[in-house]
Amino acid sequence: MTITVYSKPACVQCTATTRALEARGLTFDVVDLTVDSDAYTRVSEMGYRQAPVVVAGEEHWSGFRPDLIGRIS
């Protein structure tokens, strides 16, 4: 499964999310929404307005969600 974390600099929830993914040994890519306008558009079209947005296979969510991270690990 491919995991992508759409993030912003100095985002506490983004850092918590990537640390939780790392702690579970999951491999993921981080995309900075402040420099990738295509990614920003994609996330906006999905209906999200806050970072991080995590896309894991067919699942996606916004914010720090340790419960959902646990489900995908």
Automatic annotation (TrEMBL):
Residues 3-61 form the Glutaredoxin domain. Electron transport system for the ribonucleotide reductase system NrdEF. It comes from the Bacteria. SUPFAM superfamilies: Thioredoxin-like. Gene3D superfamilies: Glutaredoxin. NCBIfam families: GlrX_NrdH (TIGR02194). The gene is nrdH. This is Glutaredoxin-like protein NrdH. InterPro entries: GlrX_NrdH (IPR011909), Glutaredoxin (IPR002109), Thioredoxin-like_sf (IPR036249).
